[in-house]
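Protein 1 of 2
SEQ + STRUCT:
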Amino acid sequence: MRLLALACVWVLLLTAANAIPKKGVNVCNAGQAAITSITAAPSVRPSWAYALLATSSPALNRGRCATFTIMDGTSYCSYNFLATSSNGRRNWIIGMNVCATHTPSWKVIN
């Protein structure tokens, strides 16, 4: 009986883990300045909650691309992104679907 209960719990945990989609975004720096920070937030919450590239991390230099994974434990798929460059410019994209079957790309021109 305990083995059956453990098996049921295991199946429920696997189902719950698979219910949260894999989320990410590929950011390409097509500008002249380095990108020093990238933050994200679900479109349903207007605050910049998740630092994908912090100011303490190495910058995303021009001509470079990087893929960032969003691991917030939610099933939200629509996200807003804000990129800040070393020249002080800020670029944002609103409502990007990060649950697409392919990883979406954002080309930042600063």
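Protein 2 of 2
SEQ + STRUCT:
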Amino acid sequence: MFFNINVFVLNKKLYISCFFKYRMKKIGGYILTLIGLVILASQVKGFEIILKYLPFLSTINKTYSLIAGLILVVLGIVLLMSSGSGRGKQLEEVPIYRGKNIVGYRRQR
């Protein structure tokens, strides 16, 4: 499951909260970056074919289009970086003593 929706009632008001998990952030980051790259590529002379399939991009001012593309790429990368690598944080190992001897290690948060 990619996201979790919680519905609860507090003081006779209905609240709906949605928590996106790791994969949804990654997918959103990839989508934002891809859209930003398409917008940027549409303004480069070698990629006019994009304007054939997305004609509304030709109606937007070139400067605004470049700025919007850059912002989307940066936001996508920030979202990708903030979602982490998918692995949990490494737990710290602390020694277990029996007398003065270390007999094992325990993982601690």
